[in-house]
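Now for a specimen:

…
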Amino acid sequence: MRTLLITGAGGSGRTTVAAATALAAARSGIRTLVLSADRTDSLGSVLGVATGSVPVEVREGLTAWRPDAAAGFRDDLAGFQERAANVLDLLGASRLDAEEVTPLPGAEELTLLRALRDAVLAERHDLLVVDLPPAPQALALLALPEELRRYLRRLLPPERQAARALRPVLGRLAGIPMPSEWLYETAARWDMELGAVEAVLADRNTVVRLVAEPGPAGADAVRSAGLGLALRGLRPDVLVASRVLPEEAGDGWLAGVAAQQRKAVEEWQESYDVRVVRHLGHDPRGTDDLVTLDVPGAERTTSVVEWPVEDRLGADGVLVWHIPLPGAIRDELDLIRRGDELVVSTGQFRRIVSLPSALRRCTVAGAALRDGELCVRFAPDPDLWPETR
């Protein structure tokens, strides 16, 4: 199963592009599911069919699904209260009724991740098209599984479970209840679920696609989104320039807008595979409008970008870790080595990555940003590096 993640600036037409892409795939005989977590049914408005918590068939080969974040949040909370009953009773806490629960911020994103995982595991379709939130929220969403797994492992390391037999004794000695079995079981289950989502995002069959309306604001959004994706080890397979005015826009103010759009598209073409989707003169509504949009097909290469380690021990006595960061600015770049991890910050984005095994036995010897690529030099640590004969 292939997964196509589509995002872009708010109001750029990403939902329209997602719906048109899914429809085009279905018309070519590919069993397609288009997924969205938008609270408002913008996907249904574009498709001309109301979508909701139950998958609906738009036409033969095309299914649309907008999972219910409120219902999922209520179910998760009810399960948590049931498993934590002893602790809640000890604290004298009163339980929440399902009727008074409303989703907290971020519930839509978690619901979308879970739906994405379930859709992939179900294997009922050949293609999954995901209408992600606007780029800033989408980038946070893509980072969420990795970051949550890291937090879980720091707070509840798996090795602590080896001491489960001692917890009752320690609890009596300390005079306070120790973490019960359900806590570790819940952490292990969350780690497994997050790992499944992380595997989908890192799969070479997963493709990320950007949508932007050409212009100054669109250019800023593309630069920011491209940098954020690069820090996740991803690169858009296609940049869709949406709502592009026709060449014959006229001599009035529309001509100035059209010229501005052409300039932006030309600049994007220097760095991306750009596909232009023309403005219809109205907001697309229904499948008849969607089929007229010349959206790129779903048969594209992977978005996963390798971060190779170059062996220059013989020539310079170092290993070099190459991290592509197109659009990064030197003054906004920061690196911190923390044990076996490297903290990379660029602009508003930050990621903590585990060092490859060979680099863990090295010390950082310097770094440089050249032509959109961060090159970090590592020198072998004599105390850790194996001796050569």
In short: Residues 169-178 have pLDDT under 50 and may be disordered. The first strand starts at residue 2 and ends at 8. The chain has two domains: 2-69+103-290, 309-380.
